[in-house]
Write a structure and sequence with these properties.
The complex is a heterodimer.
Chain A (H helix, E strand, L loop, with lengths): L2 H14 L2 E8 H5 L5 E4 L11 H13 L6 H9 L4 E4 L5 E2 L11 E7 L5 E5 L15 H25 L2 E2 H10 L9 H18 L2 H12 L6 H13 L10 E7 L2 E6 L7 E4 L4 E4 L12 E2 L3 H4 L11 H6 L5 H12 L2 E10 L5 E7 L1 H7 L4 E7 L7 E8 L2 H15 L1
Parallel strand pairs in A: 2-3, 4-6
Antiparallel strand pairs in A: 1-5, 1-7, 5-6, 8-9, 8-12, 9-10, 11-16, 13-14, 15-16
Helix pairs in contact in A: 3-5, 5-7, 6-7, 13-14
Chain B lengths: L2 H6 L4 E4 L2 H9 L4 E4 L9 H14 L2
Parallel strand pairs in B: 1-2
The chains are: A alpha+beta, B alpha+beta.
Chain lengths: 411, 60
């Protein structure tokens, strides 16, 4: 197969994906997570070189699972090899920021009905002191327990009653309403609650229903994890198309940025991460920023987030990337490194053109333009939480490494 | 066009590559169209060879 034919097939699969949200169950039920396994964001990484927010989140997860009774106990468990660290991506899952998933955590389950593969993502915990930013105090653990014991099971019941929520149409609508689905998800979150509500009110009752609806109504970024799972379901279908130079995943672990390429299967190509720049919340500045972190760049892999900045001038301002003109310019620039336009994800401000999709390693290396990612900025210290929002570039080195492997495979 | 004719009218400039020239001309009030162009793969011969190998595959 020629590179052109392989890339045409990759693009076909990306654009044909039909992610449907079907369930919310524990990670052990969804993906068979074993005791002692902790999934994290980004490409593989060892404990010693993990950044503080990821280490803090792992300590929290070990206490949440009851595998450690204190922070010291958790650190001792890690030190004696009692924990197996694996990327979420290796188990068909994605998680924002630290991206920690352990076996009793509830995860959303999505099916890509075009190709039959599945993807999972955790439930977004909201803002403030949350596990994904490395916080691990009692309030964090109590929220995780509530998600496990009450919110997750109720979401699962409602989703099963609904027969599944088709996310491609919902995401297309949200893009038209000003979301880019990375740093702005208020429209998508609202549309999701609207789609779920009839089933939710029939399955839930009393205080449990009130707690869940309060939680859903109070988190503009609730849909982020679902957008990520939808993108994961779409992009996983690309892995293993011989010769294709299309990017199938982008993810960061706080130390390295990794990409996967359709023609190279599950192999990662990594380079040191950059640190996001942008807008900082009051009391914080650039010196508080953790290096780039999280699986959320999977949405850019599907043409959303920074790639679709033109759809969301509000997000562009929030991440410190300027206003309307700059948002339009960024998406135009991203068109130089992509092979197609998404037929459903259309951008009104660009004459209804589709979002740029199908990042081609060759085009990135040729132009020197790397994908632009919209991102929350985590505090460097575990548990500080989100200190701002900004943009960050994927490092060029990932793409040159992938190009070398593709050329070697080409013979 | 003779040199005298060319210099008798205000210049119309297309700048390709480094934007500093376009910015200087704009600052001096000269109309200029800037083309954002960079050499492929920043001119790196090793990367160009790899790209050529993969691009060549498209031509088969």
């Amino acid at each position: 197969m020629t590179v052109r034919a392989a890339n045409a097939e990759a693009l076909r699969r990306l654009l044909a994906a039909e992610p449907v949200l079907t369930d919310c169950v524990s990670a052990v039920e969804a993906i068979g997570l074993e005791p002692g396994v902790v999934l994290h964001a980004g490409p593989p990484i060892g404990w010693q070189v993990m950044c503080a927010p990821v280490q803090g989140a792992i300590v929290g997860a070990l206490r949440y699972e009851g595998w450690a009774s204190s922070e010291a106990d958790a650190l001792e468990l890690v030190a004696r090899g009692g924990v197996r660290l694996e990327p979420c991506h290796h188990r068909g899952a994605v998680g924002p920021m630290a991206g920690i998933i352990t076996r009793s955590m509830p995860v959303f389950v999505l099916e890509n009905r075009a190709f039959g593969n599945r993807a999972c993502a955790t439930i977004n915990e909201g803002l403030g002191r949350v596990l994904r930013f490395g916080a691990n105090d009692e309030t964090v653990l109590a929220r995780l327990a509530w998600l496990r014991d009450e919110a997750g099971p109720l979401l699962g019941k409602a989703l099963r009653r609904s027969g599944g929520i088709e996310l491609r149409t919902l995401m297309a609508q949200a893009l038209q309403m000003g979301d880019e689905m990375h740093q702005r998800n208020v429209a998508a979150s609202s549309l999701f609650v609207r789609a779920l509500l009839p089933s939710l009110v029939r399955e839930g009752t009393g205080a449990a229903l009130e707690r869940l609806t309060d939680f859903l109504a109070g988190n503009d970024q609730f849909f982020l994890n679902l957008a990520m799972a939808a993108a994961k379901a779409a992009t996983d279908s690309l892995l293993g198309i011989p010769g294709s130079t299309v990017v199938a995943a982008m993810a960061r672990n706080g130390a390295e940025f990794g990409i996967r390429v359709a023609g190279c299967g599950a192999r990662w190509f990594t380079a040191p991460v950059n640190t996001p720049e942008g807008f900082f919340f009051p009391g914080f500045g650039p010196t508080d920023a953790n290096p780039d972190l999280g699986d959320s760049a999977i949405v850019e892999t599907l043409g959303l987030g920074g790639m679709a900045m033109a759809a969301s001038p509000g997000a562009a301002r929030f991440v410190g990337a300027g206003g309307v003109a700059e948002a339009l310019r960024i998406t135009e620039e991203m068109r130089e490194i992509t092979l197609g336009e998404h037929p459903y994800f259309r951008i009104p401000a660009q004459g209804d053109r589709g979002a740029p999709v199908g990042i081609d390693v060759r085009r990135v290396v040729t132009t020197g333009i790397t994908p632009l990612i919209n991102t929350g900025i985590a505090g460097r210290k575990a548990g500080v939480g989100q200190v701002g929002a900004g943009v960050v570039r994927a490092p060029f080195g990932c793409f040159t490494a992938a190009l070398e492997a593709l050329a070697a495979d080409d013979g | 066009m003779s040199l005298e004719t060319a210099l008798s009218k205000p210049p119309r400039v297309i700048n390709i590559g480094l934007d500093v020239f376009a910015l200087e001309l704009q600052a001096a009030g000269v109309p200029v169209i800037h083309v954002d162009w960079r050499p492929p793969a920043a001119g790196d011969p090793r990367l160009l060879a790899l790209l050529e190998r993969l691009e060549g595959d498209d031509e088969e």
